[in-house]
Amino acid sequence: MEKQESSAAAVSAFEGLGEDLAPAGVVMGKMFGASSLMLNKKALACLNGDKVVFKLGRDTAEHARALALPGAVPFDPSGMNRPYKDWVELPFDSHEQWPAFAEAALKFVAGG
Length: 112
Description:
The chain is of the alpha+beta class. The chain has helices at residues 8-21, 61-67, 98-110; strands at 27-31, 34-39, 42-48, 51-55, 73-74, 87-90.
C-alpha cells in the first residue's frame, strides 16, 4: 500500500476517535503500517492519508450508509481493484461522521 502522509487535522480527528473509544477497550496500534484503532488485537479503523478506513461489515446498514457519502470508496489497499469487502474508506470531508462510523466498526469487530 502506498503510504500517504496524513495532515495534522486528520491525525487529530483520528486520535480523537481513539480517545472516545478507549473506555470500550480500544487502543492505538498499527495495521498496514498505518495508525489503527484496535480491539483485542483486531483492527476496526485505520488512518490512510487524510482518510479513515472503517471495518463495517459488508451487509450492514452502516456499510451502505458509509458508501453513500461523497468520496467514500471500498478500501482497496492493493490498488488492483480487489477491495476488502468489509472496509469502507471515508474522506476527511466527512470527518464529522467519523465518530458514528467508529462506533459502528467497534460494534462489528466486537461481534455485534
